[in-house]
């Protein structure tokens, strides 16, 4: 079954509903330039109260090692990195990291051209770094997903996520703007509809 990530969490009630409905990951954007930016206090107040089966993910843009470590102390258990990761003092990060990539020039090429087995594939936007509401080319995303575990992001909604899963066959799908009433505020009806559609079921 395709895993589900609900990203751009800023409120406890949104995280708790996502967890209740079976989301595997909830994402906290720890980049102050994002309209969905969360503080470490928000992470502390939410992440540690979640069921152990739900992974709190910190979303970073060109982070320092200190920024990642502070987020881990606050309850983050996975780091999603857009841009360049830091040079880790001990040679490895304090938690598992996932690199964000976008489609390259052709075929299954990705940028940055990394060999990671698991990647988050999003629409390319050098300014917003995600959350654009733009979809990626699903046919080419499917090529990437043949050889890697792809977390598919970019423009997913309750209306199109079932088609995206059918075409791409990703490891997971990631949604933020597609289920919001405003940036960082989840519409609970759309959140429910998204998870129902992603699971191919008729209600929860």
- The succession of helices and strands, N to C, reads EHEHEHEEEEHEHEEEH
Biggest sheet: strands, sense, closure? 8 strands, parallel, barrel
Shape: globular
Strand order of the largest sheet: 1-2-3-4-5-7-8-9
Task: List low-confidence stretches.
Answer: none
Rounded to the nearest angstrom, the distance between the terminal CA atoms is 16 Å
| CATH architecture level-2 label | Alpha-Beta Barrel
- Multimeric state: single chain
Percent of residues in β-strands: 15-25%
Q: Which CATH C-level class is it?
A: Alpha Beta
Q: Output the number of helix runs.
A: 6
- Assigned CATH superfamily: Aldolase class I
Q: Nearest-angstrom radius of gyration?
A: 16 Å
Structural class: alpha/beta
Describe the structure.
By secondary structure, this protein is of the alpha/beta class. The protein has one domain (3-199): Alpha-Beta Barrel (TIM Barrel), CATH 3.20.20.70. The protein is built from 6 helices and 11 strands. The chain has helices spanning 12-20, 40-46, 65-74, 138-145, 161-168, 188-199, and strands at residues 3-6, 25-29, 55-61, 78-82, 96-103, 110-111, 118-121, 149-152, 172-175, 180-182, 185-186. It has an 8-stranded parallel beta barrel, surrounded by 5 helices. Strands 10-11 form a two-stranded antiparallel ribbon. The longest helix has 12 residues, at 188-199. The mean pLDDT is 94.
